[in-house]
């Protein structure tokens, strides 16, 4: 574990060093930085699955009644579901 | 453009990501994200916004009249009709709980033409519209996007809404929530596990945020970007 941490720290230093060394002889534009950053963000996999939490606040009676009513509209046969 | 540019930019970003995550550790604040550019730069998100615009007449017709709704959308009619009478705060509870009941479904990666890369790239996400999500369910990004669209239908202003992507240390994966700015300036985060967070959830690190107009970065703070710009101007 210690070796892994050391290796990671070394990698970070290498990356920092590389970036600093490049600064001396590279013309970098703001648009390039943004492009690199957006390209990185675009490739992030955002697919987490979160089951209902027991810590979630329960709905009060009025909201729960609305939710039940909405679900009954969904479940009812077509057109007969019209509430008015 | 020299070879060093190609190597240097990702290395610089990696370094800054490691050194400057402080802003991402505070509560979510709309004013703290660094503006990265217009939403169209993120091709998959822009494509979703385009599809949402094309589907808007279908959605509008359904919200106007129940008989015009295809079956998966009928709950939206009932919800919007009832939620219009509610305060903003109560709308959030109802919308969050209702959409969280939809079926979870994981995305498949696919190839798209990227404006950024100028070539076809394989992207892990497909952001669904509200209509698509109601028809077939989706993953956390789709829950957040659908809440965004449904709250827009309830007249919540675009500047008060953002889909926020965070890294969840507990599950070691990225997760999307919807941030809604409250009148007192704080943000409520609508989560797909039914919770509504009023402060940063334990273990969440904010990465970036989107709405229909813009993209913001929450990992690289304004000071870091300012340093980058100053260095570039001096070269």
The major sheet of chain B is characterized as: 7 strands, antiparallel
Major β-sheet profile of chain A: none
Radius of gyration of chain B: 19 Å
Total strands of chain B? 9
Indicate the structural class of chain A: mainly alpha
Structural class of chain B: alpha+beta
Q: What percent of residues of chain B are in strands?
A: 15-25%
Amino- and carboxy-terminal Cα gap of chain B = 14 Å
Strand content of chain A: under 5%
Describe, in plain words, how this protein is organized in 3D:
The complex is a heterodimer of chains A (84) and B (235). Chain A has three helices and no strands. Chain A has helices at residues 2-25, 30-42, 61-75. With 84 residues, chain A is an all-alpha fold. Helices cover 62% and strands 0% of the residues of chain A. Chain B is of the alpha+beta class. Chains A and B meet through helix 1, helix 2 and helix 3 of A and helix 1, helix 3, helix 4, strand 5 and helix 7 of B.
Q: What is the compact description of this entry?
A:
By secondary structure, chain A is mainly α.
Task: Summarize this structure as a short list of keywords or feature phrases.
heterodimer, A: 84 residues, mainly alpha, 3 helices, 0% strand, B: 235 residues, alpha+beta, seven-stranded antiparallel β-sheet, two-stranded antiparallel sheet, 9 strands, 41% helix, disordered N terminus
